[in-house]
Write a structure and sequence with these properties.
Layout: H1 3-25, H2 47-51, H3 53-56, E1 62-65, H4 69-74, E2 77-78, E3 83-84, E4 89-93, H5 101-112, E5 116-120, H6 126-132, E6 135-138, E7 146-150, E8 160-162, E9 169-173, E10 179-187, E11 190-200, E12 203-208, H7 216-219, H8 225-232, E13 240-243, H9 258-262, H10 264-284, H11 302-315, H12 319-338, H13 347-357, H14 361-376, H15 382-397
Parallel strand pairs: 1-13, 4-5, 4-13, 5-12
Antiparallel strand pairs: 2-3, 6-9, 7-8, 7-10, 10-11, 11-12
């Protein structure tokens, strides 16, 4: 290698090392993405707010919700007494919350049992808007800076002024009968409602339109944290159900395989089945199978036998025996399909059967009362048999 070539190679190495040194010495650019994730320390994450919840609610524990609200709270619902097995405050902070109508309805049900729902967002699902009777619009006189303040005079000193990351959404219409205005936002000379409380059943739903105030950037700037604390002061000091932005099933969308993919055992079984099918197709694509002779299946004579036995009992007028067998078959069907204990046919049994069979409780009660009566009757006639048969058939078909 000549001396000149060595000099060129050395210069290239020095240049390459210089580029690496500059890259490592340059501070990384600030990520201004609005993630609202409680694990993000970037300006528009909610790491600070999430970790200060224990200060805002010192007597409460925080529970992360990493599935949809419907999947989470439905597990706490008791169908026996129509109540929830837990209480607390649900908190969701996101610019565009991924709330489906099922989850929105579940939150309304949770609130109606005496709990608080707090959502700070720019957009809300249609189910919430229709149920709580409110509408939102865009303020076209948005100037990029706003003053946020409360309607409560005792929170007057908690007002703040911010200008980065604001939205121009406001509440244009609310149901004044059940809704209380808790806060406003002022852009230039225009003032609009941005914080409301809606009484729902025994609980409350709080809706807020500036989720940006709960991000790291604004909470750590000046004394803006006092506004977030003022907003949270309306909630009860109870368990905090924080809707995590790091959901385990968030990327699954509305896929029909959502539940299967959300369960590790089912997910691995599904992948294993797919791999097995692919391998089978690869190794058996060229294999041919000889023609298999078609063998007619044996005729099922169970139905004919049942009809014969039924006609035998009917023709011999042995109504008591036939009624007893129909009752036994019907109760066995209830145990097998609805998993109910049929030893005691009381009011609790009637209520549970009506709920599981999705039928009117009065109709179920008539049928059960008829069964109890015929069991206690010493001598049943043909009319009793026909009425019982009609009632049971109506249960199966209607």
């Amino acid at each position: 290698m000549s001396r000149t070539l060595k000099i060129y190679v050395g210069l290239l190495i020095l240049l390459f090392l210089g580029i690496i040194a500059v890259e490592f010495s340059t501070p990384p650019p600030i990520n201004w993405q609005k993630t609202f994730k409680e694990t993000h320390k970037i300006p528009y994450g909610t790491f600070v707010f999430y970790n200060e919840l224990h200060t805002l609610f010192p007597d409460s524990k925080t529970q992360d919700i990493k599935v949809t609200p419907y999947e989470y709270f439905d597990d706490y619902y008791s169908w026996e007494d129509s109540s929830y097995l837990t209480t607390g405050n649900y908190i969701l902070i996101d610019e565009y919350p991924n709330l489906d109508n099922s989850s929105a309805q579940e939150l309304l049900d949770f609130a109606s049992h005496g709990n608080d729902i707090f959502i700070s967002a720019n957009y809300f699902p249609i189910r919430l808007q229709d149920s709580l009777k409110f509408e939102t619009e865009n303020a076209f006189d948005f100037k990029g800076k706003a003053e946020l303040y409360f309607s409560n005079p005792s929170l007057k000193n908690d007002s703040i002024s911010i200008e980065k990351g604001l939205s121009n959404i406001y509440f244009s219409s609310v149901d004044t009968l059940y809704t209380t205005v808790l806060g406003q936002q002022k852009f230039a000379d225009s003032t609009h409602v941005n914080f409301i409380k809606v009484n729902w059943g025994s609980g409350r739903v709080f809706l807020h339109l500036q989720p940006i105030v709960f991000t790291n950037y604004h909470l750590l700037k000046k004394s803006n944290a006092k506004y977030a604390a003022g907003v949270m002061s309306y909630l009860n000091d109870d368990t905090i159900y924080f809707d995590s932005r790091n959901k385990t099933t968030k990327d699954l969308g509305d896929s029909p395989m959502r539940f299967v993919l959300s369960q590790p055992a089912l997910r691995y079984a599904w992948y294993l089945a797919l791999i097995t099918i692919v391998l089978f197709m690869i190794f058996n694509a060229k294999r041919r199978q000889r023609v298999v002779k078609v063998i007619e299946p044996l005729k099922n004579t169970t139905v004919d036998f049942t009809k014969t036995i039924g006609n035998l009992y009917y023709e011999t007028k042995d109504h008591n025996n036939l009624i007893e067998k129909k009752i036994k078959y019907f109760l066995e069907y209830i145990r097998r399909v609805y998993y109910l204990d049929t030893q005691t046919l009381d009011e609790k049994f009637i209520k549970n059967l009506a709920q599981k069979a999705n039928k009117e409780q009065t109709d179920i009660k008539k049928l059960i009362n008829q069964i109890v009566y015929l069991r206690s009757k010493a001598d049943c006639n043909e009319a009793d048999l026909l009425r019982l048969n009609t009632a049971i058939e109506d249960f199966y078909t209607q």
